[in-house]
Write a structure and sequence with these properties.
Elements: E1 9-13, E2 19-24, H1 25-33, E3 42-45, E4 50-53, H2 61-64, E5 77-79, H3 100-106, E6 111-115, E7 120-122, E8 130-136, E9 139-145, E10 148-155, E11 160-161, E12 167-170, E13 174-180, H4 181-190, H5 192-228
Length: 229
């Protein structure tokens, strides 16, 4: 059975001629978004033992390609997955440790969608049969109670959603990959050596979310009791 490898570390060559790192991919992506890392910044990829400009790294290329503005009518428009380098999937946290071969196989079972700003991807009360993984952009999870909207959290590059039936709306133009129930069935049947560690990673992430939610609930109860005392 194939195992997921250790996540790659990166070093960034600063303008002060100093190497900063090691940093993991999610942190490197945040530096790109903050423009601390530009297309011409040199980045050392420890996995391949090579220096490359940031725009040449497969995991970062999407951030430096020309932006094509979508219109509201294009919400959820599907683009060919062949235009996406499978290694770019490594920016998704639970896929970060997969080998290039595993990522190439994995993307065969997914769909790539461009989502314009403000488009609603998943809506409360609607049956959901897909998981979404964020490659670019930022989305918010919100819920409406008695006509009042509450933002529960903001999701960024590397995170996934769709496992809960709330409102997931794009804060910015975004790029996501979707794994439908049909795609997951095909993945489990045709590539179980990839599906098994993937599902384990999903399980660990969901368990961590539940524990965090339980802690927040417990802290809320303690606070309310202390306030009422």
């Amino acid at each position: 059975m194939a195992e997921i490898a250790i996540e790659t570390d990166f070093f960034v060559w600063g303008i002060d001629r100093t190497a900063y790192g090691p940093v993991e991919l999610p942190m490197l992506v945040s530096w790109v978004k903050d423009e601390r890392v530009t297309a011409d910044t040199w980045v050392y990829d420890a996995k391949n033992s090579a220096w490359q400009k940031a725009s040449q790294l497969a995991e970062l290329q999407m951030f430096f390609r020309p932006k094509v503005r979508a219109t509201p009518s294009d919400a959820g428009s599907t683009i060919s997955r062949t235009t996406i380098d499978p290694r770019a999937l490594r920016r998704i946290k639970i896929l970060a440790g997969m080998t290039d071969e595993q990522l190439g196989r994995f993307i065969e079972f997914m769909e790539v969608e461009e989502v314009p700003q403000w488009a609603v991807i998943v809506k409360q009360g609607h049956p959901g049969n897909s998981m979404y993984f964020i490659l670019e952009g930022e989305l918010r999870v919100r819920i409406s109670v008695m006509g009042k909207e509450t933002i529960l959290t903001t999701l960024t590059v590397g995170e996934f959603f769709g496992d809960i039936s709330l409102f997931d709306q794009a804060n910015t133009d975004s790029l996501v990959v979707k794994l439908s129930a049909t795609g997951l069935d095909s993945l489990s049947r045709e590539a179980p050596e990839i599906a098994t560690p993937f599902l384990r990673a999903i399980g660990r992430t969901l368990t961590a979310r539940i524990r965090a939610d339980n802690k927040r609930y417990g802290d809320s109860v303690k606070f309310n009791r202390a306030s009422a005392a």
